[in-house]
Each structure stands twice: as structure tokens, then as C-alpha cells.
Amino acid sequence: MRISYNAPVTLTFALAASAVLVLDMFFGRTLTSSMFSVGATLDFSNPIEYFRLVTHIAGHADWNHLMSNFAFILLLGPILEEKYGSMNLIVMMVITALITGVLNVLFLSTGLMGASGIVFMMILLVSFTNFRKGEIPLTFILIVALFLTREVLAAVQTDGISQFAHILGGICGSLFGFLKPNRRD
Predict the structure, then answer these.
(1) Contact status, residue 77 vs residue 122, Cβ threshold 8 Å
(2) Is there a smaller number of Cβ atoms within 10 Å at the N or the C end of the chain?
(3) Which of 134, 162, 163, 139 is nearest to 151 (CA)?
(4) Residue 38 in 3-state DSSP?
(5) Buried b (16+ CB within 10 A) or exposed e, 2-28
(6) pTM, full prediction
(7) 112 forms bridges with which residues in the sheet?
(8) What is the mean pLDDT of each run of 10 residues along the chain (185 residues)?
């Protein structure tokens, strides 16, 4: 028996985010804030700002933050890579990161970091793994009801967690599930 790199996008993302956190600790906790988070505003003259609209998904505040996101990503990512293909999953992740980053800058006065938008995209998207045209999976309806209710209730708390990114990630996952991209690798 040998170990296989069975979900390259998922595993590479997990390793990259872990490396970012380790390097951030090594560089005195400045790497994440400068390269792997979105600020409350966007300096259009700084090209790094555009980069950060996507890279914020690799930045995490600490090991607990990283583990809470990647427990889900490592569970759901391989299923989604198998279903949709690695390239499609990368595209969905980048689109979700970009949407959450841009809308956070436009509508919120807080920064953003972490992969929770990707987690919620994957949670909603995985409910479509056995989707048939003309049907709406009951699992999708239940997941939307449970997670949306929790996120709306949590949004009134000041806990430093971006329920906005969670909801946007879930919307992206839902749209990707309904659009059902073809597997291409």
C-alpha cells in the first residue's frame, strides 16, 4: 500500500494555508495582515490589494481558526474534486474568494481572513453530489435552513466571525450546485 495525493487542490490548499500560518508566526504575525487578509477598504493603486481579494482564504488568525476551517475542507474537498474535477473546484474557490473579498470591502467596515466562505461553499455544494435535473435535493433545503438560521442569529453578535462571508460562500456553493459545471481535468 502507498499513500496517494488523492485530492490535489484540497491538499495543496490545506498545506499552503498551514505554511502561511507557520510563516506568519515566524515573521512576527505580520505576513497574514499584509498578504493574506482583506482590509476594510481597498487601495486601488496598490496591486497587492487585488491579490489579497483572493489570498485572504489562506490567512488564519491561529491554529484553532485554521483547524475549524480545514476539518471541513479536508472532509468535503475530496468529494467535490471527485465530482467536479480539480480545475472546476479551483475556479469555484477563486470565484467564492473574490466575491466574499470584494463584497466585504464594499459593504462592511471590517477586515476579512480565513477560509470559512470556502467551507460554506463546499457545505452547500456537496449537498448537490447526487443532484438530478428538475429536482431540488432535500439535503440542500435542510442545510440551507440550518446554516442560514444559525448565521442570521449569529450575525447579531459581535464575535469577530464574518457571517457575511459564510452566507456569501453558501450562496456561491448553491449557485455552483445548480449550474453543475462539467468535470474537466
Answers:
(1) yes
(2) N
(3) 163
(4) strand
(5) eeeeebebbbebbeebbebbeebeeee
(6) 0.91
(7) 38
(8) 96 98 93 93 91 97 96 97 95 98 92 95 90 82 86 67 85 91 60
- With contact defined as beta carbons under 8 Å apart, do 61 and 114 qualify? yes
Number of H helices, E strands in the chain: 8, 0
To which H or E segment does residue 100 belong? helix 86-107
CATH of 8-179, one of 1.20.1540.10, 3.30.465.10, 1.10.390.10, 1.10.357.10: 1.20.1540.10
Give the DSSP H or E segment for 123.
helix 116-126
Distance CA 46, CA 49 (A): 6
Separation of alpha carbons 122 and 129, rounded Å = 11
